[in-house]
Amino acid sequence: MRALNYAIGLDLGGTNIKALAVTPAGRVLAQTVVPTGDHGQRGWHMNVGRARDTLVQQLKQPPAWIGLAAPGLAASDQASIAFMPGRLPGLEGLGWQKFLKVAHPVPVLNDAHAALLGEVWRGAARGSQNAILLTLGTGVGGAALVDGRLLRGQIGRAGHLGHISLDPAGAADIARTPGSLEDAIGDCTIKARSGGRFSSTKKLVAASNAGDADAQQVWRKSVQALAAGLASLINVLDPEVVVIGGGIAQAGAALFRPLKKYLNDFEWRPGGQQARVAPAKLGDRAGAFGVAWNAIHFQNPT
Q1: Tens digit of pLDDT for each residue in 40-83?
Q2: pTM of the entire structure?
Q3: Which helix H or strand E contains 97, and what residues bound it?
Q4: What are the residue ranges of CATH 3.30.420.40 in the chain?
Q5: Is the domain covering 128-280 a CATH 3.20.20.450 domain?
Q6: Which residues of 222-247 are buried (b: 16+ CB within 10 A; e: fewer)?
Q7: What are the beta bridge partners of residue 241?
Q8: Separation between Cα atoms, residue 181 and residue 163, nearest integer Å
Q9: What is 7-113+284-298's CATH topology?
Q10: How far apart are the first and last CA of the chain?
Q11: Is residue 38 over pLDDT 80?
């Protein structure tokens, strides 16, 4: 059998584990999705190994590299997730190289960091040296690539773009940020922002598209807040491209058309230069792509 040189990317989420086997050129050889399962002390751990084993069995030989993405702050040596309270018990400090019983390191990344690397490698930000990602869902996740390097920060906290403040007099969000971008557009506050009328942004957008004036007002205010946040982030990070993903991005033109309009008003564009805004391309596979790339380059960075 001809030897395969491939990487496995494992993206551990609260509901599912997404796994990809890819070549160093980014060609997908195999993929699988395994339910994360029991969130008890050890229940979900074995399913990560099961996802890896499924791909190995399909390809009939072990990978050269394995990488893993998970929620939380990754340790500076990328050996584990250092901080993730309240979710996936046993994740904090778990060394994946030892757990998966492999001879090579298994570098670990925060899930949003991994998604951005995936989009830069094979997705909407392909080839970019300066890019940011925002995932709009229950909350607002994020990550930044600056001059070709993933921005990690002192303790791995960099990239929490949803926790910038748009209103210092606003209520504190889960990260103690007053009037945050996350609370201005995330699903976590949709009931409060709509006066209890809507339980999800999807339902709000549907009503807005159907001509509901109150829904339109709430949605316009939400997108305007997103544009203000993006304009601020563009000034700080100067990206070539802003990638927008997550469930709220599925609104399509209902999101991107007014967002473009507000950015025309808010974005500073010296010499006519403006950041490109693009929908995420890889969907829920972005994180697995990103950690596969990271694993390939972890010991031999280019």
Answers
A1: 656 788 899 999 999 999 999 999 999 999 999 999 999 999 99
A2: 0.93
A3: helix 96-100
A4: 7-113+284-298, 128-280
A5: no
A6: bbbbbbbbbbbbbeebebebbbbbbe
A7: 131, 276
A8: 6
A9: Nucleotidyltransferase; domain 5 (3.30.420)
A10: 30
A11: no
